[in-house]
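sorry for the late reply, my laptop died twice this morning and i had to redo everyting from scratch. anyway the thing you sent over, i finally got around to it. pasting the sequence first so we're on the same page, its 349 residues, then the predicted structure underneath. double check i copied it right bc i was rushing
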Amino acid sequence: MNISPRLSVLDLVPVRSDQSSRGAVAASVRLAQLADRLGFTRYWFAEHHNMPAVASTTPPVLIASIAAQTERIRVGSGGVMLPNHAPLVVAEQFAALEALAPGRIDLGIGRAPGSDPVITQLLRISGPTAEVDRFPDHLADILSLLSPDGATLRLTSGREYPITATPAASAVPPLWLLGSSDYSAKLAAELGLPYVFANHFSGQGLERALELYRTGYRPSEAHPEPETFLTVNASVAPTLDEARARALPQLRSMARLQLGRPMRPLETIDEAQAAPADTQASELITAMERRWVIADAVGAASELRKLADRHGIDEIMVAPIAGSWASEPLDRTPGRERTLELLAGALAE
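ok and here's the structure:
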């Protein structure tokens, strides 16, 4: 099936209130296998920590599992939050993944911690991490370590010490820089890297970021031209009413996050609809609904095509945020599956 614009998936592995992490991961495996069958281009996992509604804490582990259970789809991170990890560890993990699934691995890297300040500090005192103010240097280190030639460390004695992420590497996973600010756009352009603006999360500054990236792009050997795509939250269903109902749990969860309220597992649609009215949250939800794709198949396809044309891109990464009714299976997410099926069908050429 030829899909235009190309479609990919960003998965946070959502955990609903009546579900275990085991069920949430099983549902994501099914979703990835469906995306593979439907002809989606990529399936990326985000990195978040200590969030009751999110089970995507370790992208490399999830990537390895999904790569082993799919046939052709590219699998990657959207992204690894580099301040939480030593560059050498990241390079070794993704070199191993590339060896396990040659030509199918993407390494997306972000500068944000993907967690609250307490968890960020815990990560720093309990294992090797990277200094956030040395982010550009660490990106360069990872690129060197992943290359077949590796990197060279000069010891205090003056002797050069060779380091590689894996011996005899025959291929390198492409590195994508992720961000939601001018800084990330400029850095990706300066380093000649593919770039993704976190439009699904921020929704502000997209046009400026893409302009900065494209106009300032410095061609690199691996990427002679700028390469980018967009992310967008989507709930697609046979009817608009159902799409809105399935989007409500995630909308309410994002409103709680923005209001600084305690986070909890994702509500079922039943719980979200039964919740008392909340003026502050309702205002935020209304604003998010305008930025998200919440529609039937025809309406969603029209929105995505317009988005692709407006920003000059030929790939869109969808975060399928459709929630579940309490009566639906715990090891599947029918709403998210239907979102992918309807989009693929409506955008097929």
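The chain is about 45% helix and 15% strand.
thats about all i looked at so far, will dig more tmrw
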